[in-house]
């Protein structure tokens, strides 16, 4: 008996990440081509450089790939120039029933994709003292609802505000 591939039988692999990989590759090319100054793009398991002063550091599915996102955020921020920007394109925790499903499926999703899908990336950035100035939530074009929620966020270090001329 001949066995047909799953796609030919009409079976959709809910953990397939091919469309996600295509989207991430496209977004990586866009960031490399549109940002001014020194740009470092780190993706997935590739941690990128260990030193430098970059105007822009772009994390593409990097925070979702590490066990300690706080330490990785600190490492990426250390690579920024004083007025540098951190841009992340990451899977993120959805809302409502999707968030509950993501929390339940997190371990299996990590084993199948290498990503932790149950993290609130904007909250992680803010917890490390960054100011999130731009945030876009978007769905990835995949069959699994737990892999759909992603974010693009742009953050910078918090700048002190001078109190010139203000009575205390």
Tell me about this structure:
This is Class I SAM-dependent methyltransferase. It comes from Actinomarinicola tropica. The longest helix is centred in the middle third of the chain and has 18 residues, at 96-113. Helix 2 links the parallel strand 2 and strand 3 (80-91). The protein has a 5-stranded mixed beta sheet. The model is unreliable at 1-12 (pLDDT under 50). It is an alpha/beta fold and 168 residues long. The chain contains 4 helices and 5 strands; from the N terminus they run αββαβααββ. It is 31% helix and 26% strand. The termini are far apart. The chain has one domain: Rossmann fold (3-Layer(aba) Sandwich), CATH 3.40.50. It has helices at residues 18-34, 69-78, 96-113, 121-127; strands at residues 39-43, 54-60, 80-91, 130-139, 149-157. The chain is globular, with a radius of gyration of 18 Å.
């Amino acid at each position: 008996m001949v066995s047909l591939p799953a796609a030919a039988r009409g079976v959709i692999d809910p953990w397939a990440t091919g469309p996600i990989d295509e989207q991430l590759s496209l977004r990586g090319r866009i960031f490399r081509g549109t940002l001014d100054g020194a740009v470092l793009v780190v993706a997935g398991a590739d941690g990128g450089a260990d030193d430098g002063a970059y105007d822009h550091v772009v994390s593409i599915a990097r925070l979702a790939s590490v066990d300690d996102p706080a330490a990785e955020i600190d490492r990426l921020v250390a690579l920024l120039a004083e007025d540098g920007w951190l841009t992340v394109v990451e899977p993120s925790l959805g809302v409502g029933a999707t968030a509950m499903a993501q929390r339940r499926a997190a371990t299996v999703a990590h084993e199948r994709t290498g990503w932790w899908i149950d993290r609130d990336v904007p909250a992680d950035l803010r917890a490390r003292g960054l100011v999130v100035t731009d945030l876009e939530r978007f769905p990835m074009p995949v069959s699994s609802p737990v892999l759909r929620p992603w974010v693009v966020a742009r953050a910078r270090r918090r700048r002190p505000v001078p109190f010139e001329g203000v009575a205390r």
